[in-house]
């Protein structure tokens, strides 16, 4: 329909999919009205979980023009599309495959006309690190280089999303004094990065991300690239991940929060990989996006820096997270409390699985440079996220289970 199609472009076809009104928003050089003195931000990976929240914050709170790029359809940003939206003239979406020659050239065009480039594109799901290690490395290192090179070519500020996994395992996990903060607090400028053996392919993601960080730093030193690196610590919130069999593959394995929510809504036990003994530090996505906006707004404070963006107050053992979510789900829905089951990492993910033990960010640099600190507690973040999951998926999963139960006798009879 014209309402949903107005701001959408498809570079693959070299022509805008838009209404006449939408076309009039374009200037003679192809730039949008947001180019008239306002900052223009290009978000690569805009239709994903983080991209959708960042886009929403920017277009609702700032006067910036946003050029959005993604390989997937804009389902997570659909509520922001439409010629009738008051920000329609400041946002356009380009769906393209940035691994093709045509897609790369189109991305180059969009980066050229932007002031700041935020690169979110990546594979960041542990199950994929084991199943598709080559694709994981290519996606996170090889495919990232075009965006980096274009920012060098056109002298743009690149905000590249890395991961807290680049730190690897903590020093305390190797026997150093666990009471000494320097052995477990992860500091951007002093903490060593310790990965597992090459045969432990779980680390292919972290190694690819670390290598691309080093490449970006090298471009900064050698070619004057203006850059900022963001290391997210398990950002959570609405629209994250997927539910297997509903909007993801039946055999998919989403990250821990979506995995636990799937089990709760289906009435299955929550799977604790390796007993759920590792810790994670969760940060609410709204808080995190505020940090990213500050990076854009304060280049003199952010360029040439790498920032931890997380919430050290929200550190929790995964087995305790399961109990928290079981209690919260029962309170929200009134249903009986769920259960847990323990399974080995190799059985769940496959051979080559290892994990980092603890991820607690040092906040000194981000506090000092950006005057930022997170505000949302773990319980607040979890409840907000869980309620969205329930509203969106509970009925769909119930209907799916009902259909499966009704089909079971016929399937059983056919096998006999």
Q: Compute the average pLDDT.
A: 88
Name the helicity range.
Answer: 40-55%
Query: Distance between termini?
Result: 49 Å
| Strands in their spatial order, largest beta sheet | 2-1-5-4-3-6-7-9-14
Oligomer: single chain
pLDDT below 50 for ≥5 consecutive residues: which ranges?
1-7, 12-34
Radius of gyration: 22 Å
Number of strands: 17
- Tell me about the biggest sheet? 9 strands, mixed
Shape: globular
Description:
- It is a single chain.
- The protein has helices spanning 2-5, 20-24, 49-61, 101-112, 126-131, 133-142, 144-154, 204-223, 256-266, 285-297, 299-302, 318-333, 345-349, 364-370, 378-415, and strands at 8-10, 15-17, 40-44, 65-70, 91-95, 116-119, 157-161, 185-186, 226-232, 235-236, 270-273, 279-281, 283-284, 305-309, 315-317, 340-343, 360-361.
- By secondary structure, the protein is of the alpha/beta class.
- Helix 12 (318-333) packs across helix 15 (378-415).
- The model is unreliable at 1-7 and 12-34 (pLDDT under 50).
Question: Top keywords for this entry?
Answer:
single chain, 416 residues, alpha/beta, nine-stranded mixed β-sheet, two-stranded parallel ribbon, 17 strands, disordered N terminus
Layout of SSEs?
Elements: H1 2-5, E1 8-10, E2 15-17, H2 20-24, E3 40-44, H3 49-61, E4 65-70, E5 91-95, H4 101-112, E6 116-119, H5 126-131, H6 133-142, H7 144-154, E7 157-161, E8 185-186, H8 204-223, E9 226-232, E10 235-236, H9 256-266, E11 270-273, E12 279-281, E13 283-284, H10 285-297, H11 299-302, E14 305-309, E15 315-317, H12 318-333, E16 340-343, H13 345-349, E17 360-361, H14 364-370, H15 378-415
Parallel strand pairs: 1-5, 3-4, 3-6, 4-5, 6-7, 7-9, 8-17, 9-14, 10-13, 11-16
Antiparallel strand pairs: 1-2, 12-15
Helix pairs in contact: 3-10, 4-7, 6-8, 7-8, 9-12, 9-15, 12-15
